[in-house]
C-alpha cells in the first residue's frame, strides 16, 4: 500500500525508522530488531540510506524483509546528492522488483570522504528535483523531510518557502527532523498551513534514553533542548536507569500532546533499539486505540 493512502485512511499513523546494517550492527541482529518492532504493529517502517555519510548497502534488503516477509509497509530513504539519473533509475527498478512502493526522497549531506564539489557532479541539486523524477515514474508514493527548527543551511522563512516548493513538486507526506520542543513544532505547523503546505506531517520523536548520545545528536541536528528537558538531562545524565525512565516519560508526553493538537503522524527514530519503543507504545495504548 502507498503511504499516501495510509494517511488518507487512518486518523493517526505510527511509524518507525531504522538504519541498515553496518560494521557494528549485523544483518542478523537487525532482522531480530525488525521482528520485535513488528509486534508493535507500526503503519510503516522506514530504512535510512547512507545517513551520516555511512554505507548505502542494506537499505533495500531490509525494506524488502519488512514488506515481503512481515507484510508491513516499508519506506526506503533515498538521497540524490552526487547521483546521476541512471543510478537513481536503477535504485527505483530494484525497489519495484522488491515490491516496495514508498520512498522518502532526500538531498543528503556530503559524504565523509568528499567535499562540496559533489553537489556539481550529480544530476540533482535539491530533494525536490529527486521528488519530481520519482513522481514522473508514477510508481511510488513520495515523502520528504522537513525541519521544524529550520534546516541548518537557511533561515526559517527561506526554508519554509523552499519546503513549499518541495511539496508542490509532488510530495505526499513530510517527516520531521527530531525535535524536543512541541511548541516550535506546532508553530511551524501553523506557518506551514498558512503558506499552503497541507500534506500530512509526521513528527520525528527520539526517546532520550542516553544523555550523552542526545547531546551529540542535537548538535548534529540543529534542534534545541527546552528547559524542561535540560533539567531532566542535568539531573539524571549520570544514572542510566533514571535517565531511561525519564526519557520514556518525556517522549510519551511529547506524543500525547502532539496527537491531541491534531498532528497525524508519529515517527519514532528507533536507533535500532526496541525496548524504548515498546514502552512508549504501551504507555499510549488506549490513546492509540482512540485513533483507530
Ligand atoms: P532539501 O529539501 O533539498 O533542502 C536542503 C537545503 O536546500 C535546505 O536548506 C533548503 O531550504 C534548501 N533548498 C531546498 N530547495 C531549494 C531550492 N529550490 N532553491 C534553493 N534552496 C533550496 N540523510 C541521509 O544521508 N540519509 C538518510 O536516510 C536521511 N534520512 C533523513 C530523514 C529525515 C526525516 C530527515 C529530516 C533527514 C534525513 N537525512 C538523511 C538528512 C538530510 O539528507 C539532510 O538534512 C540534508 O542536509 C537535507 O536534505 P533534504 O532532503 O531536506 O534537502
Automatic annotation (TrEMBL):
InterPro entries with a match to the protein in the record: FAD-linked_oxidoreductase-like, Mehydrof_redctse-like, MTHF_reductase_bac
GO cellular component term of the entry, any: cytosol
Keyword Glycoprotein: no
Pathway(s) where this gene product acts: Amino-acid biosynthesis; L-methionine biosynthesis via de novo pathway; One-carbon metabolism; tetrahydrofolate interconversion
Obligatory cofactor(s): FAD
GO MF entry, a single one: methylenetetrahydrofolate reductase (NADH) activity
GO terms classed as biological process: methionine biosynthetic process; tetrahydrofolate interconversion
A Pfam short name: MTHFR
Keywords: Amino-acid biosynthesis, FAD, Flavoprotein, Methionine biosynthesis, NAD, Oxidoreductase
Keyword Oxidoreductase: yes
Reactions mediated catalytically: (6S)-5-methyl-5,6,7,8-tetrahydrofolate + NAD(+) = (6R)-5,10-methylene-5,6,7,8-tetrahydrofolate + NADH + H(+)
Enzyme Commission code: 1.5.1.54
CDD domains the record matches: MTHFR (cd00537)
Matching SUPFAM superfamilies: FAD-linked oxidoreductase
NCBIfam families: fadh2 (TIGR00676)
Family the UniProt entry places it in: Belongs to the methylenetetrahydrofolate reductase family.
PANTHER family: METHYLENETETRAHYDROFOLATE REDUCTASE, METHYLENETETRAHYDROFOLATE REDUCTASE (NADPH)
Protein name per Swiss-Prot or TrEMBL: Methylenetetrahydrofolate reductase
Organism: Sebaldella termitidis (strain ATCC 33386 / NCTC 11300)
Amino acid at each position: 500500500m502507498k503511504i499516501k493512502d495510509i494517511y488518507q485512511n487512518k486518523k493517526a499513523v505510527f511509524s518507525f525508522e531504522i538504519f541498515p546494517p553496518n560494521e557494528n550492527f549485523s544483518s542478523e541482529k537487525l532482522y531480530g530488531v525488525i521482528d520485535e518492532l513488528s509486534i508493535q504493529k507500526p503503519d510503516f517502517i522506514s530504512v535510512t540510506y547512507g545517513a551520516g555519510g555511512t554505507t548505502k548497502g542494506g537499505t533495500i534488503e531490509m525494506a524488502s524483509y519488512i514488506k515481503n516477509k512481515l507484510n508491513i509497509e516499508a519506506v526506503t530513504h533515498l538521497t540524490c546528492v552526487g547521483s546521476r539519473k541512471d543510478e537513481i533509475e536503477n535504485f527505483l527498478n530494484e525497489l519495484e522488483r522488491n515490491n516496495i512502493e514508498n520512498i522518502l526522497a532526500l538531498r543528503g549531506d556530503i559524504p565523509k570522504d568528499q567535499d562540496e564539489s559533489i553537489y556539481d557532479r550529480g544530476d540533482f541539486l535539491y530533494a525536490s528535483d529527486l521528488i519530481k523524477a520519482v513522481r514522473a515514474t508514477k510508481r511510488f508514493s513520495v515523502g520528504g523531510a522537513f525541519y521544524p527548527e529550520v534546516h541548518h543551511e537557511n533561515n526559517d522563512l527561506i526554508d519554509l518557502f523552499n519546503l513549499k516548493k518541495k511539496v508542490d513538486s509532488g510530495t505526499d507526506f513530510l517527516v520531521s527532523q527530531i525535535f524536543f520542543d512541541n511548541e516550535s513544532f506546532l508553530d511551524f505547523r501553523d506557518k506551514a498551513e498558512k503558506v499552503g503546505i497541507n500534506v500530512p506531517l509526521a513528527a520525528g520523536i527520539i526517546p532520550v534514553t542516553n544523555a550523552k548520545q542526545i547531546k551529540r545528536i542535537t548538535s548534529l541536528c540543529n534542534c534545541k533542548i527546552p528547559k524542561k528537558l535540560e533539567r531532566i538531562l542535568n539531573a539524571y545524565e549520570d544514572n542510566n536507569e533514571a535517565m531511561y525512565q525519564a526519557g520514556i516519560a518525556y517522549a510519551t508526553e511529547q506524543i500525547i500532546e502532539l496527537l491531541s493538537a491534531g498532528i497525524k503522524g508519529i515517527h519514532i527514530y528507533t536507533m535500532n533499539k526496541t525496548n524504548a519503543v515498546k514502552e512508549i507504545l504501551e504507555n499510549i495504548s488506549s490513546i492509540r486505540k482512540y485513533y483507530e
